[in-house]
Amino acid sequence: MNLRTEAIAGITTFFTMSYIVVVNPTILSTPGTGMAFSGVLTATVLICFVMTLMMGVYAKLPFAVAPGMGINAFFTFTIILTQGVWWQTALGIIFWAGVLFLIISVTPIRETIAKAIPSELRIATATGIGVFITFIGLKNAGFITSDPVTFVKLGTLGLQTILAIIGLVVTVLLLIRRSALAYLAGMFVVTLIAWAAGQIKAPPTLLSPPDFQTVFLKLDILGALKLSLLPAIVGILFTDLFDSISTFIGVAHAADLLDENGNPRHLRQGLIVDSFATFGAGLAGTSSGTAYIESIAGIDSGGRTGMTSVFTALCFLPCFFLAPVAGMVPLYATAPVLILVGASMFKSVSHIDFRKIEEGLPAFLTIILIPLTFSITQGILWGFISHVGL
After folding, report:
1. 253-290 per-residue burial string, b: 16 or more CB within 10 A, e: under 16
2. N or C: which terminus of the chain carries fewer CB neighbours within 10 A?
3. Where are the beta strands (DSSP E) in the chain?
4. How far apart are CA 178 and CA 379, in angstroms?
5. Are 244 and 274 in contact (CB under 8 A)?
6. What's the CA gap between 320 and 49, in Å, rounded?
C-alpha cells in the first residue's frame, strides 16, 4: 500500500462527490417539508464522515458513503410532500428500512433476494429514478413548469434558467476533461453570477457551528410503524438494496476489486456498513446513506484499500462549519447536478431487452411510472406486478 497514492485517491473521491453536501440539504429542505437546511447539512456531513470512515476501517474498501441521490428525492417528494407524512415520521421510515437492511445483510436473505429480482427490474428502477431526478432538476431550473391543460410546458427563459444552462455547460465541459471538481465548479459559477446580479445575498457570516438541534435524533420511530407506511419502508429498502449491490458489483468488476472466486471483495461487510448508513441516517436527520458510484474516481486514481475511504472521510470534517456558505447556493445552481446525475443513471437502460415483452413491458412501466406518478414506490410496485403477471 502506497499511503500517498491512497491519500490522493481519497481526496479525489471527496471532490467528485462533495456536491452532496449542498444538494442533499437543498432537496430535503424543499419548502413544505419543514426540515431545516442547516440541520440536514450537519446530518449529511455526519453520515458521510462516520460511514465512509467505517467503510474504510471495518469493510476495508475504498468506497465513500453519503445520502443517496434518488432516495433523497423519494424521501422528499413522495413520502413527505405527496403522501403528507411528517418529516419526523419519514425519518422513522428510514430507520426501519435500515434495520431490515441490516437483517438482510447479515443473513442469507440478501443473496436470495438479489437472485430472485430480475436484472431488468433492478436496471429499470435505477433508470426511472434517473428520469425522476432529471425532471426535478429541470423544474428547479425553471426550464419546465406546470400547465392546467398539458400538465407541463416549457418555462419562461428567464435569468435563473439561463444561469442553470450556464452551470450545465460548465459542468459538462469539466466532466469531459474528467475533472473531479466538475459539479462543484458548476454550482460555484452559477452562485457567483447570481450573487453579482443581485439574485441572492451573501450570508452575514461564512462559518457556523454544526446544527445538532433541529433534526438530529428527532425521528418518530413508533409513528413509522403503521401498516399504511409499509410500502414506503419496503420502497426505501429495495431502492437502497438495488443501489448498494449495483454499486459494489459494478465498481468491483470495473476496478478488479475481486476475490479469488471472482466475487466483489468484502461484499458482506460493505453491505453491513451500507445498512448502518441507512438507519444511522434516520437518527442523524437525513435520507438513507449508501455507497457512492463516484468512488470509482478515487479507485481510478490508485485507491485500493480502506485507507482511501479514511482520507475521504477526513475531507468531510471541515464541511460541518460551512452551512451559511452552502445556504447561499440557489435551487437553479444545483439543477445541473440533478440533470447530469439523472443522465448517468439512465444510461444503463441499454442493458434491458425490450424485444421480449415479458422483460420489456415491466421495465418500461417501472421507468415511466416513477416520474409520472411522482412515486418510486408505485413504479417499483407496478413493475413487479406486471412481471409476475406476464
Report:
1. eebebeeeeeebbbbebbbbbbbbbbbbbbbbbbbbbb
2. N
3. 65-67, 144-147, 151-154, 289-291
4. 33
5. yes
6. 10
Task: Give, in order, the Cα–Cα distances in Å from 106 to each of 99, 178, 235, 244, 269.
Answer: 11, 37, 20, 15, 9
- Interstrand relation of 289-291 and 65-67 (parallel, antiparallel or unpaired): antiparallel
Query: Given this model, what pLDDT does residue 269 score?
Result: 84
Among residues 278, 361, 305, which one has the least CA distance to residue 7?
305
Helix (H, G, I), strand (E, B) or coil at 360: helix
Which three three-digit cell numbers place residue 8? 490522493
Q: Which of 127, 69, 40 is nearest to 334 (CA)?
A: 69
> What sign does the dihedral 311-344-291-86 (CA atoms) show?
positive
- 376 closest CA partner among 37, 72, 100: 72
Residue 69 pLDDT exceeds 90: no
Query: In whole angstroms, how far apart are CA 229 and each of 66, 232, 243, 366?
Result: 24, 5, 21, 20
- Of 14, 52, 121, 30, which is closest to residue 290 (Cα–Cα)? 52
> What does the pLDDT average to over 16-44?
89
Which of 50, 40, 95 has the alpha carbon at shortest distance from 215? 40
* 51 and 68 Cβ atoms separated by less than 8 Å: no
Helix (H) or strand (E) run with residue 100 in it: helix 87-105
Could you report the per-residue pLDDT of 236-261, keeping only the tens digit for each?
888 888 777 777 766 676 666 777 76
Q: How many CA atoms lie within 13 A of 197 on its CB side?
A: 11
- What is the rounded distance in angstroms from the CA atom of residue 264 to the CA atom of residue 245? 10
C-alpha cell at 202: 451573501
Question: Identity (one letter) of the amino acid at 68?
Answer: G
> What is the reported pTM?
0.77
Amino acid identity, position 233: I
